[in-house]
Design a protein that fits this description.
about 325 residues, alpha/beta, seven-stranded parallel sheet, 7 strands, about 45% helix, about 10% strand, globular
């Protein structure tokens, strides 16, 4: 889903990864993670992670992320930057995107927000080209942009259905179409695509979303075979229900004040989310995306990797 000039810039001296991650962890934009430790965050319990270790897996690498003005994408932008990446990310919400950029730069990282909508081919092509011109080469792409519209199948208008499929599935195709040539010129790379646990086990009212997310798994598998010889690995990230704006916007209690919403959703999740009985944090899912994008697993491609707290293990 989602402008800056494309002239190369001189990068500031970078603090240690540990210092930067510490700064990010205490920032307001990741209050969810900080609140987790304080027992306030949605789904807080003994299974919650601590602070991420200081690592530098993406030092001097260019990382592109779609759909990163909030939620999993924004969390990933912070984490990639915290591990040394030059991060270019896009989304439709300019104010939020600029806020994420300021936060990362304020913590000593390198990131640039570009306004682009994955529904618009010229915008996604311009985003990819400008990001590569700014930072040089392309090594990692995290294609995360997505939306949902929930209603019974016969109640969808054709425009409703097309908007979900065109954002989630066609938008990922377009992003990859323009990312891949740059990766080939860079000597290879990794692509991670956000699918959904709904691709494996879904519910009523999610026909368009489920079709798009299951389609992404097929897209990933075929692309992995297309580009294995070019040194490009492609994998699907399959998260369960995550504490994001998208989930809150769909909830009938989403309009409650923050504290009341979190308490109510924490109680709801205990009874309605199989397995761990809580929602994932964006940081948990984003950390797994970094693992899939890292050089640690060079034999991993064409896979669908589930991080859903046990949701799809439930019969």
């Amino acid at each position: 889903m989602t402008d800056e000039d494309s002239a190369p810039t001189t990068r500031p001296a970078r603090p240690s990864r540990r210092a930067m991650l510490g700064a990010i962890a205490t920032s307001g934009a990741v209050a969810g993670a900080a609140g987790l430790a304080a027992g306030v965050s949605l789904g807080a319990d003994s299974n919650a992670p601590g602070s991420p270790p200081a690592r530098s897996r993406f030092e001097n690498r260019t990382v592109l992320i779609t759909g990163a003005t909030s939620g999993i994408g924004a969390a990933a932008a912070r984490l990639f930057a915290g591990e040394g990446a030059r991060v270019a990310f896009c989304g439709r919400r300019t104010e939020r995107g600029q806020a994420v950029e300021r936060e990362i730069r304020g913590a000593g990282g390198e990131a640039t927000y570009f306004r682009a909508d994955v529904l618009v081919e010229n915008e996604i092509r311009a985003f990819v080209d400008a990001a590569v011109a700014k930072y040089g080469g392309l090594h990692v792409a995290f294609n995360n942009a997505g939306i949902t519209i929930q209603k019974k199948l016969h109640e969808y208008s054709a425009d409703d259905f097309d908007r979900v499929l065109n954002t989630n599935l066609r938008g990922t195709f377009l992003a990859m179409k323009y990312q891949v040539p740059h990766m080939i010129r860079s000597g290879g790379g990794t692509i991670v695509v956000t699918s959904s646990s709904n691709a494996l086990a879904t519910d009523a009212g999610r026909a368009a979303y489920t079709a798009s997310k299951r389609g992404l798994v097929g897209l990933v598998q075929s692309a992995a075979l297309d580009y294995a010889g070019d040194g490009i690995r492609v994998n699907a990230l399959v998260p369960g229900t995550t504490d994001t704006d998208l989930v809150r916007d769909l909830s009938p209690i989403g309009g409650l004040p923050d504290d009341a919403y979190r308490v109510a959703m924490r109680q709801w999740a205990k009874s309605n989310v199989p397995g761990l009985g809580r929602l994932a944090t964006p940081e948990e899912v984003a950390a797994f995306a970094l693992t899939l994008a890292s050089p640690e697993h060079p034999y991993l491609t064409g896979a669908q990797l589930v991080i859903d707290g046990g949701k799809t293990a439930h019969a």
